[in-house]
Amino acid sequence: MCRVTPEPKAEAEPHAAWTRVRLARHPKRPHSLDYIGRLVTDFEEIHGDRSFADDPAIVAGFGTFEGRPIAIVAEQKGRDTKQKLYRNFGMPKPEGYRKGLRVMQIAAKFGRPVITLLDTPGAYPGIDAEERGQAEAIARNLREMARLPIPVLAACIGEGGSGGALALGVANIVLMLENAVYSVISPESCAAIIYRDSGKAEQAAAALRLTAEDLQGLGLIDGIVPEPLGGAQNDPDGAAESLREHLRARLDELAVLDGPALVDHRFAKFRKMGNFFV
User: Fold this and answer.
1) Is the pLDDT of residue 105 over 60?
2) Secondary structure (DSSP) of 71-111
3) Of 14 and 119, the one with more pLDDT
4) What phi and psi values does residue 125 have, to the nearest 5 degrees?
5) In Å, what is the CA distance from 198 to each residue of 149, 164, 208, 275?
6) Does residue 203 sit in helix, strand or coil?
7) Helix and strand tally (H, E) in the chain?
8) What is the C-alpha separation between 194 and 207, in angstroms, rounded?
9) pTM for this prediction
10) What is the per-residue pLDDT across 168-195, written as a single tens digit (0 to 9) for each?
């Protein structure tokens, strides 16, 4: 084997990456329920993890997409103050991840594809979540999603925050909306650690390579979903139709694979990430 050194790429302009972060966090940007309402018919939500409680930060259930029965698991932020508090600002707790996994396992039993929508600043870091096994719940989702013998598609529609998003992101196909971001840490937290100054978040955003273009270039995602001019918040219907087209095409691609082939496809996809050897 020989080592292949990737060609150096020019680092993104700080303001360009930060613009994407701001658009991903735009207060009027469509959230998961906005897309579910436009893309999924006959949606029936499932509540609770059958262990502790329901977590409104994750919406999960079954419905029909383009004539296909599917399962959908999505992270949901709130719009106004009341909703933000109810949805815990889109930060799931362990029971949310366990609810999502419960729905995915039911989908596997009945041979339904799974679509996940990622939109969270990160998993909830509170003491109560840690006491109920936050890290274990995320780790279990990573393991069990890797084993699902059904098509799994993930779409990052806003913020893809660290393990909080990755816990629903182990998919055969990972898509990102044009102005979404996906990163191991928020720019503010990164700046506080690296530069000892959270005010340098704009600089950290560029260094993190968190835009859709960056991640596609690194081979970490499989496609970019175009947004209407100025961002999805300017035309939610147009953004939903763009996402519909990409999800439909990718489901058609995966439909020819059987269960073991889907698992192998998913394993190979994640196994080669960060590998620069041939």
Assistant:
1) yes
2) EEEEE---SSHHHHHHTGGG---HHHHHHHHHHHHHHHHHT
3) 119
4) -95, 15
5) 43, 21, 14, 31
6) helix
7) 12, 8
8) 11
9) 0.91
10) 999 999 999 999 999 999 999 999 999 9
